[in-house]
Amino acid sequence: MESLSEGDWLIITADHGNDPTWHGTDHTREYIPVLNYGYGIKKGVNIGTRNSFADIAVSVAEGLGVNYKNKNAESFYRDIKINRSS
Description:
Layout: E1 10-13, E2 34-37, H1 54-64, H2 77-80
Antiparallel strand pairs: 1-2
């Protein structure tokens, strides 16, 4: 984390969760962590239970200024970024 620059944004997550009682490797009902870190990221913000893994993709796109839409996803970028103009 010490290697991050002021504009960097680190996201730590997993690709899927698995119910420990389920036999097999299919994706199941478990949720995944989404940890956000960076100098421009607010500390201690709970982004809640997300409806889609795609929320990460649209959030990153918004943070990069890329026009990317997904009808099944909602960005959390505005909730976590520090507003430097205020």
